[in-house]
TrEMBL record:
Keywords: Antibiotic resistance
Species of origin: Actinocorallia longicatena
Keyword Lipoprotein annotated: no
Domain of life: Bacteria
Name of the protein in its database record: N-acetyltransferase domain-containing protein
Gene3D superfamilies: 3.40.630.30
Keyword Glycoprotein among record annotations: no
Residues covered by the N-acetyltransferase domain: 3-178
PROSITE patterns attached to this UniProt entry: GNAT
Length: 179
């Protein structure tokens, strides 16, 4: 079944809220889930007020997850923190992702979503030279999904964790634009 991506719309906010409330998602995203918080955090991207791009990942047309994509140049604080660990080229991008339903995890869906996101990134952003992703070292399923999608670990170091219960150690993965 094919994976596709479409931009998040306000009508998706209830679905995002449901996914963010799932224990397997909340563990790593540590996100407020009130309707107001979801609107505050995802609304600006849907209206074009923030440079981040949010997508719903679809499996054969059915929503299964969320992908966020951004240029490090648009978020200098994140870029500067990561640049203490690895080189961050000017046109580097990053992604974040989640699979909303626990019963869909552990079945190879994560790498497929990442692969589709990478393919679309190369098409949508011709200046993008690479994608770099920092993952909490304890989030093994996420960094394994990156590896299965072809990214390589290029560094590790301390970054502020999304969830304060996590250690600061992060693994950094990278994939360069195909020639």
């Amino acid at each position: 079944m094919p994976i596709s991506l479409r931009r998040v719309e306000p009508a998706d906010f209830p679905q995002l809220r449901t996914w963010l409330e799932q224990p397997h998602v909340a563990r790593w995203w540590n996100h407020e889930t009130s309707p107001e918080a979801v609107e505050r955090d995802f609304g600006p991207a849907t209206r074009g007020e923030e440079p981040c791009e949010d997508f719903i990942a679809l499996l054969d047309g059915a929503p299964v997850g969320l992908v966020q994509r951004s240029r490090f140049a648009d978020y200098p604080g994140e870029r500067d923190a990561l640049a203490k660990i690895v080189e961050v080229p000017v046109e580097a991008m990053t992604v974040d992702y989640l699979i909303g339903d626990l019963d869909r995890t552990g079945r190879g869906l994560g790498p497929r979503i990442i692969e589709e996101t990478l393919a679309r990134t190369w098409r949508d952003h011709p200046a993008a030279t690479c994608v770099i992703v920092a993952i909490a070292a304890g989030n093994r399923p996420s960094w394994r999904a990156l590896e299965k999608a072809g990214l390589h670990r290029v560094g590790e170091g301390d970054l502020e964790p999304d969830n304060p219960v996590d250690e600061p150690l992060h693994y950094v993965y990278r994939i360069d634009r195909p020639l």
